[in-house]
Amino acid sequence: MTHPAWLVAHSSNFHTDPIRRGRWIREKLLAGHVPDVPITVDAQVPDDPHQTFRERVEAVTHKAECWKCHQHMNPLGLPFESFDDFGRFRTKESREHPDNLVRKGNGKDVADVFKTSPIDSSGKLSGTGDTKLDGEVRDAFEMIDRLAQSDRVRQSIIRHAFRFFMGRNEMLSDSQTLIDADRAYISSGGSFRAVVVSLLPSDSFIYRKPSQAHP
Q1: Burial class of 42 by CB neighbour count within 10 A (0 to 12, 13 to 18, 19+)
Q2: Neighbours of 169 (CB within 10 A)
Q3: Alpha carbon of 73 to those of 26, 32, 69, 198: distances in Å?
Q4: pLDDT (tens digit, 9 = 90+) per residue, 30-39?
Q5: Whether 42 contacts 18, CB under 8 Å
């Protein structure tokens, strides 16, 4: 999650996107669900030269009608503000606005210089199912470390592997296959290959219907 490919994929054209990053964590790793943005909502972050991007995001999403959904995304995504929209680590945010211009570049080899603000990378982890892991985090690294210790995160990854190789979502009848795959992962010390090997001889794989086969 500190790889530039993931960070860039979950950024906008000009800014980071803590909301999209947080939603990915909530849905892909913590098996949660966040409703889509209502069509009546104009999901835009306002411009304000006197505020950081995080401050502007919080100002617009902490409204009562917005926070009921954003509380499940923002605290998970905001710790990754320590990485910019290109995936580069940073401790300060350049507030790129004409009002904040410190020194103008020459348009060639010298870039414009703007006022900066320190990055606030604090956040909160919730939804792991473990009270020892849930709670305030200082930065993305602490967030990732706690996620890596979560049984729910591990089982979510196993479930996504099942869906990929089976070409369908899991059903109640697949519970033993998922349990066996999880055990294989743990006993192998975290081998994804062991997960795949455990899936292939399972009833879920052997008795697939043709329509369920992965293309």
Answers
A1: exposed
A2: 9
A3: 7, 10, 7, 33
A4: 999 998 888 8
A5: no
